[in-house]
Amino acid sequence: xxxxxxxxxxxxxxxxxxxxxxxxxxxxxxxxxxxxxxxxxxxxxxxxxxxxxxxxxxxxxxxxxxxxxxxxxxxxxxxxxxxxxxxxxxxxxxxxxxxxxxxxxxxxxxxxxxxxxxxxxxxxxxxxxxxxxxxxxxxxxxxxxxxxxxxxxxxxxxxxxxxxxxxxxxxxxxxxxxxxxxxxxxxxxxxxxxxxxxxxxxxxxxxxxxxxxxxxxxxxxxxxxxxxxxxxxxxxxxxxxxxxxxxxxxxxxxxxxxxxxxxxxxxxxxxxxxxxxxxxxxxxxxxxxxxxxxxxxxxxxxxxxxxxxxxxxxxxxxxxxxxxxxxxxxxxxxxxxxxxxxxxxxxxxxxxxxxxxxxxxxxxxxxxxxxxxxxxxxxxxxxxxxxxxxxxxxxxxxxxxxxxxxxxxxxxxxxxxxxxxxxxxxxxxxxxxxxxxxxxxxxxxxxxxxxxxxxxxxxxxxxxx
Length: 465
Ligand code: SAH
Known about the structure:
Shape: elongated
Distance between the termini: 70 Å
GO molecular function: metal ion binding; RNA binding; small RNA 2'-O-methyltransferase activity
InterPro entries: 3'-RNA_MeTfrase_Hen1_bac, Hen1, Hen1_N, Hen1_N_sf, SAM-dependent_MTases_sf
Strand order of the largest sheet: 2-3-4-1-5-7-6
CATH superfamily of the largest domain: Vaccinia Virus protein VP39
Family: Belongs to the methyltransferase superfamily. HEN1 family.
Largest sheet: 7 strands, antiparallel
Number of strands: 14
GO biological process, one term: regulatory ncRNA-mediated gene silencing
Pfam family, one: Methyltransf_23
Bound molecules: S-adenosyl-L-homocysteine
Radius of gyration: 26 Å
CATH architecture of the largest domain: 3-Layer(aba) Sandwich
Oligomer: single chain
Structural class: alpha/beta
């Protein structure tokens, strides 16, 4: 099986620095079920191509007792030819460092999108051409797919289940490698390794932010983890922490499987929402606003509490509002319950009369999505103009990122975060806001507290004085 990666970034031979593999020298590695070779078929200023060739020993696959051995019952199988999880093993073997984004000689180039072209001449693709495109297009590639005939010489035999795939785009090399590493096994039915918890870690490590925001993240995780329900659930929970997103249907499914839900440790985001709910309940508030309500997870919790007589969710973006509408199923609720709830479109950085006169306002995991230059407008719109009795703000605690194993140092938890604050930064901002507008403020950690880094999330509760 073969993979080639080509760049036309000038000078193209810089590819060697990024991959930490000298274009002058071929390299070889022993894998559990065969050998992998790396070489550069071309290396000029204008164009440089690296090739990874994996030779699988089909006999070892049938007979072997080591990892991957004994799982195929026929000597004649497709493994030597088609791209599969073996290719991912070779990518990890040769390009582990490049994939982690570190380059001693070219650190800046490693962080720069460059023109790249990857070609896999034979790839099995469960889900076919459409699925291939749905996998790679959201990641920013031009995707060319060609279905291969069973045999060139006998076209009447028809098509084979294999495809030639070409991806072209301006992306960071580390991202291309991660995309291939995760998605090649997703396209194939058979993985040559045991699927355990370690695979969830690998998926999160290589998937991280791009997977968390991929429209097919659920299907990708499920297939990557060989449809193991518990592991898939765990992966999706952890991805949703990165993304702050869980599809309404997934939540329903979790709700149905009650036993599973009880055993499953509660996710950080659920903890956050329940903490905010508790504070709102304890405050005695009757009319509440959820600013940046997203897909309405907090709204749903609020709706089930009789204490709240009027609940308004506002978001600047239409897509999550539509999801919130689905999640809340307002049309199926009794009129009395549904009439307490309203969804509005608007931005919390602008003064808005609709926001005046509420007992309490929740702003959960929203401020870090605002450009720092807009914070002052948000502050005035909320604390001066809307002026509710209480304001509850939550935001990630950057210090805690050091404890997320799958996070690369210096990165933020979500691609749309404009900043993440330390506890000291959040507290000092909150105290200034409180002083300027006549509020008292108290802080509470959310999630497990580490002595050194604090909790993963932090909350400020402002009370008008
Ligand atoms: N509070 C929700 C969603 C958090 S994600 C929850 O905890 O589940 C952040 C949300 O803030 C997104 O839905 C985004 O659309 C919204 N947002 C970002 N900027 C905003 C603004 N200026 N006004 C209102 N909402 C905003």
